[in-house]
Write a structure and sequence with these properties.
Helix content: 10-25%
Number of helices: 3
Shape: elongated
Order of helices and strands: EEEHHH
Strand content: 5-15%
Number of strands: 3
């Protein structure tokens, strides 16, 4: 068993061919931009407010990690496991989320990338409803948008954010 310190990216234990994350020093969280953490086991890690700008986290295990307020802009998260991770207030602008597992992650107030880099991301119904709710509160009078909105509105109202977005009030007003 070897202990490895990859510059300031943290302490990792290597056992054979597998690396297991141990922890970051709090001051090191500000300097993880562009870090190569491909395949790293960061499960349950406290990465609140971490600077992971342009970091390579391909196939990394971030399940249950706390990434609240982290800057993941431009990060490569392809195939990463973020199951149950907290991404509240995280900046995901320009992040590559293709094939990432975000089921049961908390994305409240996070910046979701609206690009092809969010194609094939795995989400649960809670996240899908949250995204649908945000879609349904846009102000667009185009008939095609109105038809699409009508088709998903009931699902969007199941979002835990539906009340905050006024979707439930809209329903009450239209049913009075």
């Amino acid at each position: 068993m070897d202990f490895i310190l990859k510059s300031t990216t943290g302490i990792v234990i290597r056992t054979g061919t597998a690396d297991t994350f141990v922890g970051f020093l709090r001051q090191d969280l500000a300097s993880l931009g562009s870090a190569d953490l491909k395949g790293a086991n960061l499960s349950g890690a406290d990465l609140k407010g971490a600077n992971l700008t342009s970091a390579s986290l391909t196939s990394a295990d971030l399940s249950g990690a706390d990434l609240s307020g982290a800057d993941l802009s431009g990060a490569d998260l392809r195939g990463a496991n973020l199951h149950g991770a907290s991404l509240r207030y995280a900046n995901l602008r320009g992040a590559d989320l293709r094939y990432a597992n975000l089921r049961y992650a908390n994305l409240d107030y996070a910046c979701w990338p609206l690009s092809c880099c969010s194609k094939d991301v795995k989400v649960d119904a809670r996240i899908a409803a949250q995204l649908a709710a945000h879609f349904c509160v846009m102000d667009c009078d185009d008939p095609a948008y109105q038809a699409a909105r009508a088709a998903i509105l009931e699902f969007a109202k199941t979002s835990h954010r539906a009340g905050d977005l006024g979707l439930l009030e809209e329903w009450r007003i239209s049913h009075v």
